[in-house]
Amino acid sequence: MYDINDLYEQEDADVVRAAQFKAEIMKDVSALNRQVSGDHYAMQQIQPVEFIHRNGLNFLEGCVVKRIARWRTKNGVEDLHKAIHELELLIQMEEEYGDPRDG
Q: Within a 13 Å sphere around the CA of 93, how many CA atoms are in the beta-carbon half?
């Protein structure tokens, strides 16, 4: 007869070993080629973060890019509303403070 606690301990140990195995495999995979949660970026030809970085976009510009890139596969119209809000914030920051790169 099995002790239920022994079964739980074995299951916990198996879960830990599986997580360690996955971590070992994933450490050699480029961060651009994996996604921690979901797959809304993984199916795109270029990751939004790579586009944002290569083009030197600021925080709000980057937020807009990522929301537009994922809206159909993640949060739907909610992401579009968030992108609009971030654009409004960007406009306000530019009008009130200008471009910080201008010194």
A: 13
Q: Report if pTM > 0.85.
A: no
Residues 36-59: pLDDT tens digits?
666 666 677 888 999 999 999 999
Cβ atoms within 10 Å of 93's Cβ, excluding its own: 15
Q: 72, 54, 76, 52: which is closest to 64 by C-alpha?
A: 52
From CA 91, how far away is CA 85, in angstroms rounded?
10
Yes or no: say if 70 and 52 are a contact pair by the CB < 8 Å rule. Answer: no
Question: Contact, 48 vs 70, CB < 8 A?
Answer: yes
